[in-house]
Please model this.
Amino acid sequence: MSDVPAGPLIGISTYEEPGVRWGVWRLDAALLPAGYPRLVRRAGGLVAMLPPDVPEHAAEMVARLDGLVIAGGPDVEPVRYGADPGPRTGPPARARDAWELALIGAALDGGVPLLGICRGMQLLNVALGGTLVQHIDGHAEAPGTFGRHPVKPVPGTRYAAAVPEETSVPAYHHQAVDRLGDGLVPSAYAADGTIEAIELPSGVWTLGVQWHPEMAADLRVMRALVVSATQ
Model:
């Protein structure tokens, strides 16, 4: 038997995509970019992939986890925050919106540490009554290419405790936080003033980052989630 201690179980939300091809098969599949589970494992956690399910199952699912990651993905449907879709807002992913909002609610209600990444940060803000800017320029490269830009932490925040200095991060997004959700505070900014991280300053460890830590070598954000999930 291995003497390596098991880490906390971290659930990561996944994509459900139709007609995915691999080998001789072309089937519907639940997908997750490999950078997410790799980052969790490198930070000391065990991984559970969470494909979209009915929202009524979210509380039971989250109760079995030590921590939760809401992964990046498509735009949140604007109706979720009382807006009409803008001309550059992508098509809705209604089943995923419903499932991940239920996961977020279950984590907040159940005291399970939560990390939202890109779309996950935006959805966290929406879950707590906030709104989004539906399009900004300068935060995405060519399609399928991650750019980099610096983000500056807000002193005294949970994010700053994990990453105290200004850091260059990989990013690919065109939407951003507008009005903050209830109880959330900004914990990092880009040079143009875009909010790059949000968090709940008290209670269960809850953080959202606008960039993609799974595309970087820096483990500190994920390690902070894993440490919180062991407490």
Summary: Helices lie at 35-42, 58-63, 94-110, 119-127, 158-162, 220-229. The CA atoms of residues 6 and 90 lie 40 Å apart. The chain has a mean pLDDT of 94. Residues 94-110 form the longest helix (17 residues).
